[in-house]
């Protein structure tokens, strides 16, 4: 169980802090909830759904994330857009940073092949924000420096994609 003041990663919002743990009225009746704030928005997460939260990775694990971002594996051709979207969604729901990094890497590749639009572009931006906020926090570097780290890894993927296009 998380405690008030713990820094956590929310699967959709990124780095947050547990502001409070309170009993709240929910659709399912009164439940104990973690209270976090994103900007000025209060978000209540029932303790029973704590899988949406996890502690940030350790400093030593950042290298694994950057390695996943740098090493492209061929995307299967036979997947429909819906199947591919479902796979991405499952990886993100798992709240596993390495799986999120895989999705970001694959989206970066697809962006080079055919510019991302709509929901894919929003997904790319959301995952990117979550990763750079966590890396920034863990490495104790600015968000801009963390973003540069991620972009340097994704640049390798983009170069690879451009070579494959030719």
Plain-language structure description:
The structure is a single chain. The protein is an alpha+beta fold and 166 residues long. It contains five helices and six strands; from the N terminus they run ββββββααααα. The protein has helices at 62-70, 81-93, 97-113, 118-139, 143-165; strands at 7-10, 14-17, 20-26, 29-38, 41-46, 53-54. The strands form two sheets. It has a three-stranded antiparallel sheet. Strand 3 (20-26) and strand 4 (29-38) form a beta hairpin. The radius of gyration is 17 Å and the shape is globular. The N and C termini lie far apart (52 Å).
- Kindly report the CATH topology of the largest domain: Methane Monooxygenase Hydroxylase, Chain G, domain 1
Mean pLDDT: 89
> What amount of the residues lies in strands?
15-25%
Q: Give the number of domains.
A: 2
Put simply, the count of helices is 5
Name the CATH architecture of the largest domain: Up-down Bundle
- The CATH homologous superfamily name of the largest domain equals CarD-like, C-terminal domain
Question: Residue share in helices?
Answer: 40-55%
Secondary structure: elements and pairs:
Layout: E1 7-10, E2 14-17, E3 20-26, E4 29-38, E5 41-46, E6 53-54, H1 62-70, H2 81-93, H3 97-113, H4 118-139, H5 143-165
Antiparallel strand pairs: 1-2, 1-6, 3-4, 4-5
Helix pairs in contact: 1-3, 1-5, 3-4, 3-5, 4-5
In short:
Helices cover 51% and strands 20% of the residues. The chain is α+β, with helices and mostly antiparallel strands and 166 residues long.
């Amino acid at each position: 169980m998380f405690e008030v003041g713990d820094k956590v990663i929310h699967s959709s919002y990124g780095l947050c802090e547990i502001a409070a743990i309170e009993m709240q009225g929910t659709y399912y009746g009164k439940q104990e909830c973690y209270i976090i704030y994103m900007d000025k928005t209060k978000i209540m997460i029932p303790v029973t759904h704590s899988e949406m939260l996890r502690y940030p990775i350790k400093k030593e694990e950042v290298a694994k994330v950057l390695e996943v971002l740098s090493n492209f594996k061929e995307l299967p051709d036979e997947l429909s857009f819906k199947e591919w979207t479902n796979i991405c969604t499952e990886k993100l729901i798992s709240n596993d940073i390495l799986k999120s990094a895989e999705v970001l890497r694959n989206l970066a590749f697809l962006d080079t092949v055919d510019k991302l639009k709509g929901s894919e572009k929003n997904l790319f931006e959301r995952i990117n924000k979550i990763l750079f906020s966590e890396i920034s926090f863990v490495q104790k570097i600015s968000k801009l420096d963390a973003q540069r780290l991620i972009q340097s890894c994704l640049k390798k993927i983009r170069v690879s994609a451009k070579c494959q296009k030719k």
